[in-house]
Design brief:
CATH class of the largest domain: Mainly Alpha
CATH topology of the largest domain: Tetracycline Repressor, domain 2
Number of strands: 0
Oligomer: single chain
Distance between the termini: 41 Å
Helix content: 55-70%
Strand content: under 5%
Structural class: mainly alpha
CATH architecture of the largest domain: Orthogonal Bundle
Length: 209
Amino acid sequence: MSESQPAVPGTVRPGGRTAKVRAAVLEATEDALAATGFHALNMDQVAAAAGVGKTTVYRRWGTPVGLVTDLLRDMADRSLPSADTGTLEGDLRANAALVLKTLTDPRMAAVFRAVIAAAACDEDCADALRGFYRARLTEWAPVVARATERGELDADTDAVEVLRAVSAPLYYRFMISREPLGPDVADRAVNAALAAARAGVFAAGRAGN
């Protein structure tokens, strides 16, 4: 790869000073997204806030989309592990609580709105966003596997679909209807997902899955 071409963000795990530069730039990117959103994201300002030469930022990340894409990969790496409460209901309520906490935190809500907006207009960013959620679903999938081992659900239950059913109503209110989000919404989402899972709605291979 020539010096004039930006590296594909997230394809190389940096170490030492390179890792510190990446951390500073991604932190500055997150700050900027939280403050002004994606469409106002400015490479020069991110470089200045990170204390990094703008030539480095342009060479490595290339565009604002490159910054957002790498930030999403970093967020996936830093995400919290799944819960293990001993019951499927407890685990799903922990999952819903984590999603709710993220989407109602003023800073993180602004960041997620910004990255979702970026994904809507750029396929590379959309791929990174899918990767972020794929990582989170994979991290949490064992809660359903454990539930099938305990006999709480049928063995052919699709774990990913159960988890999507928990978070989807929260994201709908967050991004589409812009309605208030609170514990009552999370509780209803969990109750609906549990009822559907116990009824076999999420059986692997079932029509619609």
